[in-house]
Amino acid sequence: MNPFKLFLCGLTTLFSSGSSGMTRKTRPRFSKGAFEVHAHRGNPKVFPENTVEGSISAVCEGVDAIEMDVVVSKDRKVVVSHEAYMAAGKVLTPEGSPISKSEESSYNLFQMDYSLIREFKCVLKNKPVSSHKPLLSEVIARIKEYTASEGLTVPIFNIEIKSEPEAYGISQPPPEEFSELVLQVLQEHHLEDRVIIQSFDPNILNLVHDKNRQLRISFLIEDEGIEKNLSLLKFTPSIYSPHFQLIRSRSFIKILHSLGMQVIPWTVNREKEIIRMVKLGADGIITDYPKKALHLLRTR
Q1: Residue 75 contacts by C-beta under 8 Å, 6 or more apart in sequence?
Q2: Per DSSP, which regions of 34-168 are E strands?
């Protein structure tokens, strides 16, 4: 076991709850019909969210997919970050100072070169760990390197393009450029068959589909109305990904399955809701607690 793996898996065991020890390779992964566990923003209850360390620790635990968010820097680098700014409570300045809520939006990543972004420290409350906001290419490369060294299957990369129409040209590039930048990274790593592209923005998803029709695409949903939501797309996505509270019956999922889509809701954290999603027939979940979810699935 290499030192990096010992460090990550040791911290994962120390800081997380649930069953102890590593759980990788204990169930079939990526098999047809299997219930998938997508680690939301890496492993955010153990490491700072959307970091290399958090993502690799989730791989250690045996997840099917690493979910992450991407934004774009001033010099057009694809950066893994949930916000397009330095969020209060999640990031410290290069000098180690906290960022207040009132000033966080002034740290617009789209107006900062990546060399500066990298100097800020991503932190997790009450945990003695810190990291930096990585490039998408760095996360992919480090996970591929780690899985190769350990004889593991490369997980699915579930990449959310953080895009909002009102932010075009302000905190993100226009959809055409944004989608092209992300697809370039995937092409460089030859990962199209291990990727899901997801977004709340149908404009981005329509462009991605036009550019690469082989990619699995997931439409993130926060409002009621299957027909209304799907009318925003020019195609049928591979995955319909609603907030879990929108799923109230098995018939909801059956409708989506009949249309040829998988159903993978977000963000499912409580034990009773994880079990409910399994019983209703969902194809997987996105969760902040991948270790807990995997333990529940293995012991059911």
Answers
A1: 113, 114
A2: 36-39, 65-72, 78-80, 91-92, 121-123, 130-131, 156-161
Judge residue 166's burial from the number of C-beta atoms within 10 Å of its C-beta, 0-12 exposed, 13-18 middle, 19 or more buried.
Answer: exposed
89: nearest Cα among 44, 133, 122, 132: 122
Q: Quick: pLDDT tens for 163-183.
A: 999 999 999 999 999 999 999
| Location of structure tokens 């609603």 | 242
pLDDT of amino acid 22: 38
**144: number of Cβ within 10 Å:** 16
Pairing of strands 121-123, 91-92: antiparallel
Let me know the angle formed at the C-alpha of 220 by 217 and 224, rounded to the nearest 5 degrees: 130
Strand partners, 220: 241
Whether 91 has a pLDDT exceeding 60, the answer reads yes
Integer Cα distance of 242 and 223 in angstroms? 8
Indicate whether this model's pTM tops 0.70. Answer: yes
**Residue 97 token pair:** 């100072």
Q: What is the dihedral angle through the alpha carbons of 173, 174, 175, 176, rounded to the nearest 10 degrees?
A: -100
Distances (CA, A) of 152 to 116, 141, 157: 34, 14, 15
| Whole-angstrom distance, CA of residue 114 vs CA of residue 281 | 42
